[in-house]
Design a protein that fits this description.
Helix content: 40-55%
CATH architecture of the largest domain: Sandwich
Shape: rod-shaped
Radius of gyration: 52 Å
Distance between the termini: 171 Å
Structural class: alpha+beta
Strand order of the largest sheet: 10-9-8-3-12-1-14
C-alpha cells in the first residue's frame, strides 16, 4: 500500500507545481507525464549548460572560416592590384604606339632588342601566382575535409556548418578560376598587340632603309665606282679625305694619281701614310718654296715635278727597298730617278692613308700650312714597281689599272671637314682643258 501511494504523491506534487507556474497564463495547456520514482525532478541546469557550450571542433572550424574570409579579402586586394598592372601595361603600350606615330625620322634597330621600354611585370607571373594561391586553397580544403571525415570527438559535425564551408570554398575557387581566365585572355591580347606593334615598327624601318638605299643608288652621280674626284677647296687643318684600306708590309710600291692645284706657295700634301711610331712612313709634300719631296721612313728625296699651274696632271712615283731606288713620272714621262732613299727598309703595315694632309700623329694633328688645296682623283697603289709603258698608258687614258693594294673606288674613300666627292671623267676633262 505504501509503495502505491508514493508514485501518486509524486504525480500530485508535479501536477500541483505545473498548475501553480501556469496559473497566470491564459489558454495554456498542461500535459501530465509519469515520472519514475527514483528520478530527480529538479531543473536540469548543468545539462542545459552542457548543451549550450561549444565543442572544440566547432571552435576550430569557426577559426578556419575566419582565416578563409581573410584569405578571400587578400585575394580580392591582389586582383585589384593586378587590374592596376594591366591598366599600366595598356598605358605604356599606348604611349609606345603614339611615339612611333609621331616620330619624324626612324633609325634601324638591332633585331632582338626590347623596343617597348621598361614594362611592368609580365601578366604570366600574375596568372602563375593566382594559380599557386588557388592550389594552396585547394590543399587547405582537402585538409579540412579530411578533418571532417576523421573528427576526433567521435561525433558528427553539424551538416549546415559543413555545407557553409563547402559553399564558401566553392565560391572562392570559382572566383579564382574566373579571374585566372580573364588574366589569361588579357595576357594573350596584350602579347598579340605588342608583337603586332613591334612587327609593324620593324617593317616600317626595313621599308625606310630599303628606300634610302634605293635613293642613294639612284642619286649617285658616278657612272662607275672610279669616276669621281675629291675636292679640298680650303687650306685648313680639318679638310681631308681618308682611305679606308690600309697597307700590308711592302718591299716596293708604285703610287699614281691625278691632281689639280693652283696653290701658292707649294701645293701642300697630296697624301701621307703614317704608322704607329712613324707618322712619315710615306709622304708626298711640297711645302713653301721647296720642291716636291718624297719621304720614306722620314728620309727625303727631292722630285723634279711641277704641278701647280691649275691644270690636271698625272703623277706616278715608284720605290723599292733594294738600294732605296725611286722614279718620278709626270704625265707619263719619267722626269727623274734616284737611290739611297731608306734602303732595305720594308714599308710597315697597318697604318692610315690621308688625302690632303700631313700627319704628325697617326690619322691626325694636321698643319694647315701643309694642307693640299685642289682636287684629287684615281689614287691607286701597287705593291710592286710598274713598267714605264703601263704608267704612260694610264697617263694617256689608253688604259686603266686599278691598284692591287689600294684601288680608287667610291666605297673606299671617306671625306671629312667639308671635303666633297663629285663625279669626274678625268680623260674628258683633260681633253676639254686642252
Amino acid at each position: 500500500m505504501l509503495a502505491l501511494l508514493v508514485p501518486l504523491l509524486l504525480i500530485h506534487a508535479s501536477w500541483s507545481g505545473k498548475v501553480a507556474r501556469a496559473s497566470g497564463a491564459k489558454g495554456s495547456r498542461f500535459v501530465c507525464t509519469p515520472v519514475p520514482a527514483d528520478t530527480d525532478i529538479s531543473c536540469p541546469v548543468e545539462t542545459a549548460n552542457r548543451v549550450q557550450s561549444t565543442s572544440p571542433q566547432e571552435e576550430e572550424l569557426r577559426s578556419t572560416i575566419i582565416q578563409l574570409r581573410e584569405t578571400i579579402l587578400q585575394q580580392k586586394e591582389t586582383i585589384v592590384s593586378q587590374q592596376g598592372t594591366i591598366k599600366e601595361l595598356n598605358s605604356k603600350l599606348a604611349r609606345c604606339e603614339a611615339d612611333a606615330r609621331s616620330r619624324g625620322s626612324a633609325r634601324r634597330k638591332e633585331f632582338g632588342k626590347n623596343t617597348m621600354g621598361d614594362l611592368p611585370r609580365d601578366p604570366a607571373e600574375t596568372v602563375e601566382q593566382l594559380g599557386k594561391t588557388m592550389q594552396s586553397l585547394k590543399d587547405r580544403l582537402e585538409n579540412l575535409e579530411q578533418q571532417l571525415r576523421t573528427n576526433t570527438s567521435g561525433g558528427p559535425l553539424p551538416n549546415d556548418l559543413k555545407d557553409l564551408l563547402r559553399r564558401r570554398l566553392g565560391d572562392l575557387e570559382s572566383q579564382l578560376l574566373t579571374r585566372v581566365s580573364e588574366l589569361e585572355e588579357e595576357k594573350s591580347q596584350l602579347y598579340n598587340e605588342t608583337a603586332a606593334h613591334r612587327q609593324r615598327t620593324e617593317n616600317t624601318l626595313n621599308s625606310l632603309l630599303e628606300r634610302i638605299t634605293e635613293l642613294e643608288k639612284s642619286n649617285s652621280a658616278f657612272k662607275s665606282p672610279e669616276e669621281f674626284k675629291v675636292s679640298l677647296p680650303l687650306r685648313t687643318n680639318y679638310l681631308y679625305g681618308r682611305i679606308k684600306k690600309s697597307l700590308p708590309e711592302m718591299y716596293a710600291f708604285t703610287v699614281c694619281m691625278w691632281l689639280k692645284s693652283s696653290a701658292s706657295p707649294g701645293i701642300g700634301t697630296p697624301f701621307s701614310y703614317g704608322v704607329p711610331g712613324q707618322a712619315n712612313e710615306i709622304v708626298l709634300i711640297e711645302w713653301g718654296n721647296n720642291p716636291i719631296e718624297l719621304l720614306v721612313n722620314d728620309k727625303v728625296a727631292q722630285l723634279p715635278l711641277a704641278v701647280s699651274d691649275g691644270r690636271w696632271h698625272h703623277i706616278c712615283i715608284t720605290w723599292t727597298t733594294r738600294d732605296g731606288f725611286w722614279e718620278a713620272y709626270q704625265d707619263g714621262e719619267r722626269l727623274g730617278t734616284g737611290e739611297n732613299l731608306a734602303p732595305w727598309h720594308p714599308i710597315k703595315p697597318g697604318g692610315v692613308i690621308i688625302l690632303g694632309q700631313e700627319q704628325d700623329i697617326v690619322g691626325g694633328r694636321f698643319d694647315a700650312t701643309q694642307a693640299f688645296v685642289g682636287e684629287l682623283s684615281h689614287f691607286n697603289m701597287w705593291d710592286r714597281v710598274l713598267r714605264p709603258i703601263d704608267i704612260s698608258a694610264m697617263a694617256n687614258c689608253s688604259a686603266y689599272m686599278p691598284g692591287n693594294v689600294v684601288p680608287w673606288v667610291d666605297a673606299n674613300v671617306e671625306v671629312f671637314g667639308g671635303a666633297t666627292k663629285a663625279a669626274l671623267e678625268i680623260c674628258e676633262d683633260r681633253l676639254f682643258e686642252s
